[in-house]
Design goal:
By secondary structure, this protein is α+β, with helices and mostly antiparallel strands. The chain has 3 helices and 15 strands. The strands form 4 sheets. Strands 7, 9, 10, 11, 13, 14 and 15 form a 7-stranded mixed beta sheet that branches. A 3-stranded antiparallel beta sheet has the order 1-5-4. Strands 6-8-12 form a 3-stranded antiparallel beta sheet, with no helix packed on it.
Length: about 300
């Protein structure tokens, strides 16, 4: 007769732990963010909004913190050398659930002329470890060299192949599905770079711990398939690369196709943001990585 009682007790403990871990409260977060030189104001607003959400979660449930030590051993001028370093990491101990009211975002300027965003946001937050997937994403100039990562590229005005090519490095610790967009905020357009136009699926399936380098199509391809060239109509422009990833397959938005085979499918930026908001509401594991790109016009 004792076994059923032990089972019930253990089951009760498990249920209690799960219930406690899912505790939801209302919290308010604030954050101030200085816009970087290679970021657009729209990207800055999104960044300060996300950081204010994290602040609200941190105020409600705190953070997990730790330290990792590194020992690098090398050889310079025939002599061995070692370099010891350490860095800290921390993650908020919960997740954002729902926004209450309208976030307040203000824009000012610092003494050096940089745009400064401040945000206050209130919403429901849920306790529990934030197992954010740590993605590796890099914009490269050379597909064979990870050190060629850059946030500045040259673009052509003629829409030809004189502009810099983009290569995108990607690696995920878990298998999943991927979309890549180039967001032109000045013109209000989102370009779908991956999957490509002739793909049969709306997402690109990736393996875990596999290194990908996208857009390595050969120069001999007459239709420019598998290649991304930057264009630039103004002396300086700012775009943003959005990498959308989830362990679960998701539905993409509806695009506007072009007659020219070499042009990527597009959709209005407002439709893209609305699609991502719906996706985020349905899929708690979806993640979007943004890379700011500064373009200089080829003269």
């Amino acid at each position: 007769m004792k076994r059923p009682h032990i089972f019930i007790f253990l089951f009760f403990c498990v249920c209690y732990s799960v219930t406690f871990a899912q505790r939801t409260v209302v919290s308010t977060g604030t954050y101030t963010y200085i816009l970087k030189d290679n970021e657009t104001p729209k990207a800055g607003e999104q960044k300060v909004l996300e950081l204010a959400m994290q602040d609200a979660v941190k105020k409600a449930f705190g953070r997990r913190v730790g330290v990792k030590n590194l020992l690098n051993i090398g050889n310079k001028n025939g002599e061995s050398s070692s370099d010891f370093s350490s860095y800290g990491w921390n993650l908020v101990n919960g997740t954002w659930v729902e926004t209450i009211g309208k976030p307040q975002i203000n824009r000012t300027f610092d003494d050096e002329g940089h745009i400064v965003f401040s945000c206050t946001i209130t919403g429901k937050v849920k306790e529990g470890i934030d197992d954010t997937i740590d993605l590796e994403v890099k914009a490269l100039k050379d597909p064979n060299n990870l050190l060629s990562e850059s946030s500045e590229f040259f673009g052509s005005t003629a829409g030809d192949n004189r502009g810099d090519r983009l290569y995108l490095y990607f690696k995920s610790p878990v298998a999943g599905y991927l979309n890549v967009y180039l967001v032109d905020e000045d013109n209000g357009i989102a370009y779908c770079l991956l999957p490509e136009r002739d793909a049969t699926s709306g997402t690109y399936k990736v393996r875990r711990n596999h290194e990908y380098c996208f857009f390595k199509g050969k120069e001999t391809n007459s239709d420019r398939s598998g290649r991304v060239y930057f264009t630039c109509e103004k002396p300086i422009e700012h775009n943003t690369i959005h990498v959308v990833f989830s362990p679960r397959e998701f539905l993409t938005s509806t695009f506007d196709s072009h007659k020219e085979d070499y042009l990527a499918d597009t959709l209005p930026l407002s439709d893209y943001e609305a699609w991502f908001a719906r996706l985020s509401a349905r899929d708690s594991q979806v993640k979007r990585v943004a890379i700011g790109i500064k373009l200089r016009q080829i003269k």
